[in-house]
């Protein structure tokens, strides 16, 4: 096992960068990798100053999905009591739920490939940026298993029809095809262009008030799931709270034709892993 940290975590102007750091396994989702990602999610949840979480992979590869070696270890484990295979699988699902429910934007930056659970990570993100040659696939059924815990997030991003197509036929998609399916929001020619593209999006993000973003994302997740009346009551209270906090600075900056206090511009060098 590598002695290097399974996930490299750094903070730049209150944006949290989490880089999967197991390039020798194409950043497969081994238990220690998932545990480290969970710590990054917990930090983004609890620290109100964090503005976004950026996920990417070391070594020019985003994530190969589940670690096949760990699959066998789970099968070999003592199955007395709770099924260890089901338990570990569900544990990953709890991580996915927390990742998708983060109140701050999650950005997936994909190079190489996002396979299986790696594609699930991308589908749980709010913004997916990728190189033109990055490949995406639900590869589980070719191994005789299913994309169990990522299924709701794949369907939420792509819709049921596209999820069925990718899951049942094992199709690999890249470039324009991935963008047409809704997997990718914007493409870059290569890694250098991808860094520049990420910097552009983070600059846009940091033109928005961090507290307002933390209020808006959970509100949008509730739309279509709850009664409109109760939702709009809460929205009114959130609007008033924002108006009395960051809204004062935002309106003053607009009137005075100056940048708001929370604005920051990112460069490609600042976002590079």
In words, what does this structure look like?
With 273 residues, the chain is of the alpha/beta class. The protein has one domain: Alpha-Beta Complex (2-enoyl-CoA Hydratase, Chain A, domain 1). Helices cover 49% and strands 14% of the residues. The chain has twelve helices and nine strands. The chain has helices at 31-46, 68-76, 84-100, 117-124, 151-158, 160-169, 175-181, 191-205, 210-222, 228-244, 246-255, 268-271, and strands spanning 7-12, 15-20, 52-57, 106-110, 113-115, 127-131, 135-137, 173-174, 186-188. It has a six-stranded mixed sheet with strand order 1-2-3-4-6-9, sandwiched between helices. β1 and β2 form a beta hairpin. α4 packs across α5 (151-158) and α5 crosses α6. The protein is globular and about 65 Å long. The two termini are 22 Å apart. The mean pLDDT is 94.
SSE topology:
Blueprint: E1 7-12, E2 15-20, H1 31-46, E3 52-57, H2 68-76, H3 84-100, E4 106-110, E5 113-115, H4 117-124, E6 127-131, E7 135-137, H5 151-158, H6 160-169, E8 173-174, H7 175-181, E9 186-188, H8 191-205, H9 210-222, H10 228-244, H11 246-255, H12 268-271
Parallel strand pairs: 2-3, 3-4, 4-6, 5-7, 6-9
Antiparallel strand pairs: 1-2, 7-8
Helix pairs in contact: 1-3, 4-5, 5-6, 9-10
